Each structure stands twice: as structure tokens, then as C-alpha cells.
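Internal tracking record. Fields below are filled automatically when a chain is submitted to the structure queue. Please do not edit lines marked as system-generated. If the sequence contains nonstandard residues, flag them in the REMARKS field before resubmitting.
Queue: standard
Priority: normal
Entity type: single polypeptide chain
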Amino acid sequence: MVSTWITVLGAITAFWAVAYALLRDRGNEEEGLSVDLFVMMWRTKRLLGFIDRTAQRARRFWRIYADVGIVLGFIGMGYVFYALFKTALKAIQTSGKQASVQLVIPGLTIPLWYGIIGLIVVMVVHELSHGVTARADGLPLKSVGLVLFFIIPGAFVEPDEEELKKASLRTRLRVYGAGSLANILTAVVALLIMNFLLAPLLQPAGVAVAGVMENTPAFGVLEKGDVIVGVNGVNIKTLDDFERVMKTLRPGQVVSITVLRNGERKSLSLKLGERKGHPDEPFIGIYIGQHYVSKIGYDGLVFPTFFTFYWIYVLNIGIGLMNLFPLVPLDGGRMLDDVLKEYLPEGVAKPLRYTAIGIGLLLLAINLWPALLNLAG
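SYSTEM-GENERATED OUTPUT FOLLOWS
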């Protein structure tokens, strides 16, 4: 495992070394391909016309849409700050054993291809929303493009920063808030597709063994990936079925468990233990989850489609909300920063900004601490 990761990291580093050597002087700040340290950007003006036409066709709609983004932005800002504060306290109380924030690294902390597809959707809808909102309020755009940061792909829309600084506070807040609004709306659409179009195609077909605890009755008998379809001759389709059967059993009994292992049906026997603190309750020593199959067949299509929308939902809702955290350069931080500058004198606004940055960095550090420990361990 370690040697595999060393090989992968070596290949990625070699790719970036070659790319930097060959392409670092290509392109410019408005068009073409440019490469910096682990960042590759391709800028073009070709899509600016599409963004402009989209904005101008329903200018009033996009302005109302962006106003909703402002409201959502400040509500989300408060929610994310409160959530991170609460989870930071738990991380301190558990000495870092409880991870509250998950790092988004495709292939390492999330599934590779589902993660890449989900991140692409996150970036595209987020940046297009920024761009369309900016044009609806008359702000010029310099370019649009694609970006590759280490191994994470994305997209961006680049507004004219000087014109953005000169715009009214409301216009700036519209542009900042529109990105996360697009992510949250995308998450809602993905959730609706999962619940109303894809979930009805699935049916429960056993209990999946997600893991086996060491030195328990199941250790050496059951394996991760097994699907329990029967216990003592009783068919098991749902988690409720499994729990009902377990309630009829007692510690010390030898039970027959029927499983599907790599598509093959097997009958296994094990002696039940007793649950710690509850000597009358049987204990096997497994982590379980619901196993599903497709009602219409085509499992190779139905399940990848379901999980694609699942990760689009998870990443859009998670990253969309996290982007509202009041810390510059996140959109939430820029919203808070501009409001403080607008309504407070510099002598008051400046220390408040630095205080917000300090508290924000501290909360992020405390929340990332367990995640980094888990990643290292």
C-alpha cells in the first residue's frame, strides 16, 4: 500500500516537473495555458459570449436570484461558524479522536472517479453562477477557463477585479453569494433525482458486512463484503429482518448464517457471544449496512448513476456551505469583509477583520486536526 502511494506521488510529481519545464512561459493573464507550481490554468474568452447572453436574457431573474444568494450567504455563514465551533469543542473534548471535517481528496478520502465528477460539477456551477450574476449587474469578465490543482480539476470565471471593487456593495455581495447558492441548488436537484428517480429502482436484498471486529465471534468466519441473506433458515432482506432474528437468539447459541461471498452462496456457523454490559443480548462483532440490488437489472449502470448523484449532492452541499465560512479568500469572508468596510470606520473594521481571521483559522485548525490524524494513521 505504501509503495503504491509512493509510486503514484512520484508519477504526479514527475508530471508537474515536465509540465512546469515545458509550459511555464505559455499563455498570459487573459488567454492560453499557464503553469505554476502544481497549478495549471487554461484561460479563454470564447465562453464569455454564452455567459453574457444567459445573463441578459433574464437579467431581472438573475438579480433576484443573486439577492437570494446574499440572504442565504449570511445565514449559511452563521450556520457554518456555529457548526465548526461546536465540532471544534468535541474535537478538543475527545483529544482529536472524533473527526468532524473530512478532507476532500479523490482516491484517498473519497472515491476517485465519483469525487472527480462531483468536484467538476461543484466548480462549474459555482463559477458560472458568479459569472452570470456579475454580467447581469453589468460587471465585465476577463476570461473563463479550467484549472488543475495538483490532481483536482476545476473551472473558474475571472471578473475584472478593479471594476468589482468599484461596484456597489449590493452588487459585490450578489456576485459573492451566487456561487454557494448554485451549489446548494445543485445539491437539492441531485437529492431529488436520487429520491424520486433512482431510489425507486432499488430494493433491499440482504445485510452487508461492512467490517469485522477482531477477537469476536465473527472474526475468521465472516468477511468484509459478505452479504447476509439468511440466519437459521430465516431469509434476511432488510436490517429490520436481521434485528428481529437477532432478538430471538441468546448468547452461547451456535447459529447458521447464509452469506453471498463474491457471488457464491455459503453456509457458515458461529457461536454467539454476549454484548458487553448486556449479558442477555447476543453479540456477533460486525459492522452492518443495507445491501441493495436493482429491480430492473443493469446494476452496472443503476448503481454508478446513483452514487454519482450521491457524491454530487454531498460535495455541493458540503463545499457550498464551507465556502460561506467567514474567512478570506472564501466568499463568506469576502462578504463579511466588504460589509465591515462599508458600515464601520477603518479603525473599528480592521481589528474586527483580523479577529474574524484569527478565530476562523483557529477553528479550521482544530477541526482539521482529527482529519489529519486519521489520514496519517
